[in-house]
């Protein structure tokens, strides 16, 4: 029996029982579509979060007040810590040869209003260096001016949403904006940036850090953002930050330092593991499809007993019969995989329309992996029917026994 004969007989067998073939193809396609969609969702989520952190720059270091050992848990977002970070602490870091820029942060929420329009929003208190550290760009005007960190100026930079809601029909530059009971002159409007690691700069008002401390009646800092001069300098900068703060805080190392590469690496590992886990769960449907392949093929062996006996009587070997049934299983599996990929791509295309801001892409490796896994599943579960067919005795098979 030639290779072409094997494919021909397998194709005839598939065509002769269309309902059986349709059930196998449908089951396999559901499994492949599930795997591809879930893999695409997991991989896209991983890529999105990693890209978000990388967009902050490659040498970012975040200094937080408090540490796990002294707070009994994760560094607090708000509330008391053993010792607050101050502008003096931020100033002490400026002399490091490994640090390129330092942006102290004070954050609060307050009502902002102008000409009878008012809304509640987040207020960022920082310095001119924030523009460099967070890679901000301007749509109009200029960012906070370079000045002493303890100098309180009544100027502000607003996001696009604030501009649209409070200055919809008039220029925003040069206008006065009231924040709580203080007035600030708008000197710049940020370019639209949207959400970035949980911070929406479009709805942000940025003022000098000293003005923010006076506005919220506090001397503490929420965070200190540090940009190092290079990736190689990052680890040296971290050690120097620890030693400087420890010396200033009476020998207590009561800060937590987060480096960007460690955050990116951690998220990458977590989301990769999550993607593999979810894809493995979806792959269970492929195993179910494989069991269906095996059961249907076993029934097929029983129905085609006389045909198998005739082939053996004409000289077909066990190996040839083995390959005949495996080829049929492979054909059905590949057809199901192709249909599943088409359904998966249509599902992803629909999700892209519904969620245009989320980048949904199926990795090339996942596409080929789905095809190979479907083919492998069909072959594995087709072995038992193939072996059963190859072991039939010609005379008994011709007699349909």
Automatic annotation (TrEMBL):
Signal sequence annotation: none
Membrane topology: Multi-pass membrane protein
Record-linked PANTHER family: ABC TRANSPORTER PERMEASE YTRF, MEMBRANE COMPONENT OF TRANSPORTER-RELATED
Principal localisation: membrane
Residue ranges of domain ABC3 transporter permease C-terminal in the record: 280-394
Name this protein carries in UniProt: FtsX-like permease family protein
Family: Belongs to the ABC-4 integral membrane protein family.
Transmembrane region(s): 21-41, 281-302, 323-344, 364-384
Ranges for domain MacB-like periplasmic core: 22-243
